[in-house]
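ingest -> validate -> predict -> emit
validate: passed (alphabet ok, no gaps, 171 aa)
predict: started
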Amino acid sequence: QWQRWDGQIFAAFERADLSELRRYADLGFDLSQGNGALRAWLDVSQGQITGVTADVAISEVALTLGTELQTLALRQLQGRISGRLLATGFELATQSLAFDTPDGLHWPGGNFRLMLMNAENKIPARGEFEADRLDLAALTQILDRLPVRSDVREQLIHLAPRGQVEKLSAS
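emit:
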């Protein structure tokens, strides 16, 4: 009767081939390569996964976040990643997320939170974005691998921003 499950599932792997996960679950992205340690908490309501929190320390990662996006290759990735479904939207967040790419790009390990809510009845669509330690040049270098609207991506690449944003909050 797993369709009626409510609660939390915990899994811990000290050494795992994370590319095997796609055989068992639709992750919403393609993780074709990745080896390392993973601890994950899955929130379940009526047999459906409604939230995930994962502590990762993985290497040789290759993931594609959308069908029209290039593969994001990382030599190593570590930190906490979480996401959850909300009544009319979703929330994504990271804590101390750091990574290195094969071509030498280093992301220093910042935090971000994105919450988007769809319009409902007379309540308009809304969202919130919070981030710290954003390296603008590094972010621009990986934009073609992130799910960002193409017009926004092109404008940011054209502007070629540089510098570091210490704290950002927008709604």
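The mean pLDDT is 89.
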